[in-house]
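for the recovery benchmark. tokens below, seq after
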């Protein structure tokens, strides 16, 4: 790791991590948009994860989610752990597209699940939160017979307003923005870069080279290698 990047982390008081599927691949969770990913292998995947499909075929939606989205044996990796450590120092916020709950397991303190979390499940009838284990046994709430669903943003649904507000505030306050494991092509998440503090240093850590219209530092390597070498005070 370049000394200047380590220094940027050491000196930063308000880091924002913008993260995507590449963070969790080292934990055994596939990148849905990669060559072997769910979206590539199944052309209908986006439809199966839409609110339209959820409303029209709740049983089909439930079976698709159970089969393709849940990886209960996955554990946080060094990327989650180092980022979580920085949030615990009140020096960082994580804004993630991931819905796999690994940031929560790593103890991330300032976390915005921009697209929701598969492990937060609630009853649409009464609003009660239920354990994910109950959902994986049945999509019907045992208490009142209401339909259960994971609290994730489906296609043709909007992002929660509070998540947008919190994410924009974090970007405006940041003195270091670190993009990790994402191509930054999915909107509105990618649009968060437009709200960054103009004085913030931007670093991108990704296997594939990224391109932006503003100055930034590209670290084209495996993020696990980068974060294994990163020293956290």
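predicted aa per position
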């Amino acid at each position: 790791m370049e000394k200047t990047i380590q220094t940027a982390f050491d000196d930063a008081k308000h880091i924002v991590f913008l993260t995507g599927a590449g963070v969790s691949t080292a934990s055994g969770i596939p990148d849905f948009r990669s060559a072997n990913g769910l979206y590539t292998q199944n052309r209908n995947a986006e439809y199966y994860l839409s609110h339209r499909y959820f409303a029209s075929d709740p049983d089909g939606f439930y079976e698709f989610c159970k089969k393709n989205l849940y990886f209960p044996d996955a554990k946080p990796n060094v990327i989650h752990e180092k980022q979580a450590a920085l949030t615990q120092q009140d020096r960082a916020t994580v804004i993630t597209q991931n819905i796999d709950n690994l940031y929560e397991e790593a103890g991330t303190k300032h976390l915005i699940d921009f697209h929701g979390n598969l492990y937060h499940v609630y009853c649409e009838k009464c609003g009660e939160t239920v354990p994910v284990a109950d959902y994986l046994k049945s999509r019907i709430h045992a208490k009142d017979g209401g339909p259960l669903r994971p609290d994730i943003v489906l296609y043709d649904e909007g992002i929660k307003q509070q998540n947008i507000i919190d994410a924009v505030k974090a970007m405006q306050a940041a003195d270091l923005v670190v993009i990790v494991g994402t191509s930054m092509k999915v909107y509105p998440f990618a649009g968060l870069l437009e709200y960054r503090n103009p004085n913030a240093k931007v670093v991108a850590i990704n296997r594939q080279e990224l391109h932006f219209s503003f100055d930034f530092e590209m670290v084209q390597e495996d993020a696990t290698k980068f974060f294994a070498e990163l020293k956290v005070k």
